[in-house]
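User: New here, please read:
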Amino acid sequence: MKRAAWLAVLCPLVLACGSLGPDDEHLTDLEANQARWETLGPGSYVYAVERLCFCSPESLGPVRVRVEDGVAVEHVYVDSGLAVPSAIAVGFPTVDGLFELIRSAIDADAFEVRATYDQGLGVPLDFWIDYNEMLADDELGMLVTEVVAPTP
């Protein structure tokens, strides 16, 4: 809950966020930033991401994801350097996977979708999705805690 509150405060203050609820503006922002990523983003990179959800502590991260040629090849916890169990690692996608999560929420007409993007590469820096206004604990957020760093 503390993480969700933090994100709700940070998003409007620090970065330009979209309005509540999915609409054409969200899709336009997503498509523009995804195109930027596809044009400028490296195929191989490392970044770290943290989940903001009502999840078990080991499912929150932050997790450092190493991607080679667009495929996640390693997931390690930032704090300990230990490998993330594969059942949990799927919750920490590549940057392309972050775009897919946002797009699927927009396509599903989620109640609330907020996202901010890196001005340079278009990477989703954070997002918050509330799939259904009437359901508790269905929300999901992601926060990039280490920016994308290309690898050879």
